[in-house]
Amino acid sequence: MADLIDEHGRHIDYLRISITDHCNLDCFYCTPFGGRTRMSHKEILRYEEVLQIVEAAVIAGISKVRITGGEPLVRKGMVELCRMLADIEGLESLALTTNGVFLDRWSLPLFEAGVRRINVSLDTLIPDRYRHITGGNYHHCVLNGIERAEAVGFFPIKINTVVMRGINDDEIEDFARLTFEKPFHVRFIELMPTNGQSSNSQASLFVPVEEMIRQVKSVGDLCLEHETESFGPARMCHFKGGIGKVGFITPMSRHFCNACNRLRLTAEGKLRTCLFSDKEINIKKPLRAGASTAELADIFRRAVKVKPQKHDLTHNRHELLGRAMYAIGG
Length: 330
Ligand code: SAM
What we know:
single chain; alpha/beta; twelve-stranded mixed sheet; 30% helix
């Protein structure tokens, strides 16, 4: 197995792939000013193209893939894509990030296709609030979906909650309490600057991790977990007597760039070496011009060479991303 090592000594083995920019929700913090623009059907990578790119990525040294979007479960045939990806020799882990709206329907087929890890984005436990945040009336669908995913055998199920002041910061304790009843990993995420919000309103929504930790600690005896690779960028804890875990993802106040192991592929075939850098490498162009899988693997090797050492955003310095999060995949 080859190793992809970047100029800063980081081992890059993880690729997040957005398979569509389309989403069935309209979360206010993810939707850019003036609404979303849709990529045209022609622009979006076909499944056989995604497959060839992943084969190349694995040759270069990638061993973990996560499918994201937009909302990946709205793209037709995505279970079949997962089945084909899971069959790629050398690909050790296939994961999915979803808003969970269609998870009830697709949990079993996804599990049978070889997906083993699921992250569900859920910012509130209150149905009315869910409608306000996402524009959709699907709160019950997400809860059913999580239940089905658990019944089918996904473990651990990670629930990702972006914490926003005045929107859902009064639910931190309720989310944390879930881990006494369920083996979920509930992960609180700091809001990141994207072009979904003006920089002023973005700054006013931002809740720093210290504040989240204070609230979580009021729920029970919190113990820090030893770091393992499966926790990714989250710092994980558990409550004494709890069966799940609580995590904190702090891209802003304590970034984890020195441990960053990832590349991103957008739905229209651009490789991004850092979530916060708009410098992209077009891999679709050589692919459509007939590049071989070995040549595409070389593009991955060259991409990691230009991966920035770190991003320099802080919550006081909100420079908006050129691309909205729905068009990157988070
Ligand atoms: N539709 C899928 C989902 O909801 O998980 C995948 C795409 S969505 C863009 C991925 C994640 O990005 C979601 O958890 C969402 O909450 C998160 N996200 C979007 N904008 C964000 C922001 N400005 N700061 C932090 N997280 C954000």
